[in-house]
Design goal:
about 130 residues; alpha/beta; 4-stranded parallel beta sheet; 4 strands; about 15% strand
Length: about 130
């Protein structure tokens, strides 16, 4: 599984990769460092190898970098995909100010793990 994480999302993506490795799911985490210029070659090579893509971005679901990155892969490596591209983003809602509410909308390790497991045909058991 290829997981491309943007900015602050790299840390939860790496934590998710560790948790998934414990469950026998291999994950390549890509940190593009910059979006302009964007390292398309590394992403496309990883997707060619894994056949899957999850893009994690703290930005909103609509019109964000995750959508652009998904479009790049759909246009240039569709033949390599073994399943749908999944975007893990902040939903298109008003951002709450309370930290406990904010945690429910900003992507984190749990959402990444659940998305990857759903793509490989497994279910995720939430932890307390």
């Amino acid at each position: 599984m290829t997981v491309l994480a943007i900015g602050r999302m790299v840390k939860p993506a790496l934590a998710a990769a560790d948790a998934l490795a414990d469950q026998g799911v291999g994950v390549e985490v890509i940190d593009p460092r910059t979006l302009v210029p964007f390292d398309e070659a590394s992403l496309l090579a990883s997707v060619e190898k894994t056949g899957h893509l999850v893009v994690v971005d703290e930005a909103r679901e609509c019109c964000g970098a995750a959508s652009q990155i998904a479009a790049i892969v759909a246009e240039k490596a569709f033949h390599a995909l073994e399943g749908p591209i999944r975007r893990i983003t902040t939903p298109n809602v008003a951002m709450p100010y309370a930290p406990n509410a904010e945690r429910h909308v900003i992507p984190g390790e749990e959402r990444i793990v659940a998305a990857v497991l759903s793509l490989v045909g497994r279910t995720h058991k939430a932890t307390a």
